[in-house]
Amino acid sequence: MLDRRTFLISAAAAIATGCSGNTTAKLPPKPSLTKPVSTDYVQMYAARPQERFPVPAVDISKIDPKFYRQVVDYNSSAQPGSIVVETHERFLYLAMGDGKAMRYGVGIGRDGFAWGGRARIARKKAWPTWTPPTDMIKRQPKLAKYKNGMDPGLDNPLGARALYIFEGNKDTLYRIHGTSETWSIGKAASSGCVRMLQQDVIDLYNRVPEGTPITVYQV
Fold first, then answer.
1. Catalytic residue among 193, 197, 201, 216
2. In what residue span(s) does the L,D-TPase catalytic domain sit (predicted)?
3. Is 177 labeled as catalytic in the residue annotation?
């Protein structure tokens, strides 16, 4: 897969009608449009009250099932243990070897803020502080109050976990991180970073060590 697609190396960095009649006959109930969700997924995305800041359960009925965390077939040259983000698919893959990968649904950067390339996870942080970049503060002056950092918590844009992406020794300023904005999964909504459901980023955080290679493909 690495040989069949080119990628960028630089950072440029939601939404019924009813009717009535005079008949007394009862209409048959409308079929449900929502398929029942597997209890495995309900448990996977259950609340995490043991966290430093208790994480609420995800209402996964509002998320396309293809974006649920799952093991999938994966035909790739990526080394086991490495991370691949396919931005056009809105998926993050953790290569497992033997033609398999753990796949997570993600939200990715809006056009004009996207980053792509080969890098590494230089460090990881549980419940990180968020400091907006200088360019972001220029675009959104109201963020200046966080120039020295925003305290951890569910309202913090980095969420429950953050994985920091570096090219060599240079911080790209892009992260894989948690989000409470579940609607953003599967969409291009962030300022360049890779967003994951809180439960998913916690799972990924526990699976990968610092130094893990990462490739982010752009189309």
1. 193
2. 81-217
3. yes
CATH number for the domain that contains residue 160: 2.40.440.10
User: Is 61 contained in some domain?
Assistant: yes
Residue numbers of the domain that contains 146: 39-217
- Among the listed residues 177, 197, 216, 218, the single catalytic one is 177
Residue 201 lies in a domain: yes
H-only helix segments in the chain: 39-44, 134-139, 198-207
H or E stretch at 85: strand 83-86
Q: What is the pLDDT along the chain (219 residues), one digit of tens a residue?
A: 444 443 433 333 322 223 223 333 344 444 444 556 689 999 999 999 999 999 999 999 999 999 999 999 999 999 999 999 999 999 999 999 999 999 999 999 887 677 889 999 999 999 999 998 888 899 999 999 999 999 999 999 999 999 999 999 999 989 999 999 999 999 998 777 999 999 999 999 999 999 999 999 987
Structure tokens at 64: 């396309």
The count of domains in the chain is 1
